[in-house]
Amino acid sequence: MPKIKTKRVGYNLDMTPMVDVAFLLLTFFMLTTQFRPPEPTPIDMPSSNATVPLPDTDILMVQIGKNDELFLGVDAQPTRERIFESTIRKQLQEANFPAIEDSLRKFKLSDAFAVNRDNLEKMIIAARFANPKLRPVIKADVNSSYEVVDFVMKTFKKTNMPTFNLITGLEGGMGNSNN
Amino acid sequence: MAAVGAPEPKKSKKGKKVRKRLGFRLDMTPMVDVAFLLLTFFMLTTTFSKPKTMEINLPAEKNDQTQVEVAESNVLTVRIMEGDKAYWNIGFKPPEAIKLYDTDGDAKLAVSDEFRRMLRENRERIRQEVGEDVMVLVLKLDKKARYRNLVDIIDELNISNPPIKRFSIADFTEADGEEIAQMLAGGAPTEPQPKEKKK
Q1: What count of other Cβ atoms lies within 10 Å of the Cβ of residue A135?
Q2: How many CB pairs under 8 A join A and B?
Q3: Which of B141, B142, B161 sits opposite A178 (nearest CB)?
Q4: CA nearest A149 in B: which residue?
Q5: Predicted model pTM
Q6: What contacts 24+ positions apart, CB below 8 Å, involve B65-70?
Q7: What is the mean pLDDT of residues A146-168?
Q8: Are A112 and A40 in contact (CB under 8 A)?
Q9: Domain B72-185 maps to which CATH number in 3.30.230, 3.30.420, 2.60.40, 1.20.1730?
Q10: Which residues on chain B are in Cβ contact (under 8 Å) with A65?
């Protein structure tokens, strides 16, 4: 080699500022992250141009899967307990189910649970008793049939909640194309 | 290397000499590695977007105060049947078929321009006739229609300029089905009076 390379002996780079920033970011992301609760069924939401964000608390969510299954979810444990006491306990007692307390404990931890149509109205009423501020929300799959959605909307109406929200995803790359 | 050097040796008050720790270095590399790993993880898993919602107001049941009388010529009825088939009519006029979506297949479905134009033209015409933007849209979905149809149409109303606030969701009754079946069968104008049967 024609050129002689100078060896860099004992080269030290102070990485402290970089590490500081890295930890700062790490703390930020750790504190702001909210993990998505496990979904009872994958739901492909319809997209829309709606911009109202979903509130964090006081939500009564009815989920409708693509095969028209119904799931009900509330975010507070006392509300869940109330729902359990109002409908499920009676049904379990009638069926002579042995471990009612165990199922209550498990029920209180579930984010969403399958319901059948006959129970939905009773459960919604129980949930509203426990928390009158609950905001009804429908999260339905694009391909669920309108019949189920209509049933849920009628139930909301019957339980005196005529105002509710439909959860939608963001419209991808489609502009506002009127006019 | 990320490392901490030894702190300056301090002398205690009594003048006792503290043993100097010469050349104390702590290798921080593993800690920094882990920190970056976690940072990357949280950065990639965080989603800042919240799900969006659209609000629906249904009239409360058995509440006569919310009933509003509307001239029939201002009512645009849109009926949706199975398979994304759409029909529209004004007042008691016979329904007309209209394409709801532009592309077939399940990929990106967008509300068709034809549908948008129909909305805009009817609205404009009613505004010119009455002098006010009084069009009321009644949405009737058949039980076999898809949920997507509902969201797409409401979204269409919300993004039209200015948004169409006056719409309602009504039941799809048997009479609606018959009206459409009649239209599909004969194509003859069907007035509400039954005397118009001659075709």
Answers
A1: 18
A2: 157
A3: B161
A4: B147
A5: 0.70
A6: B70/B134, B70/B136
A7: 86
A8: yes
A9: 3.30.420
A10: none
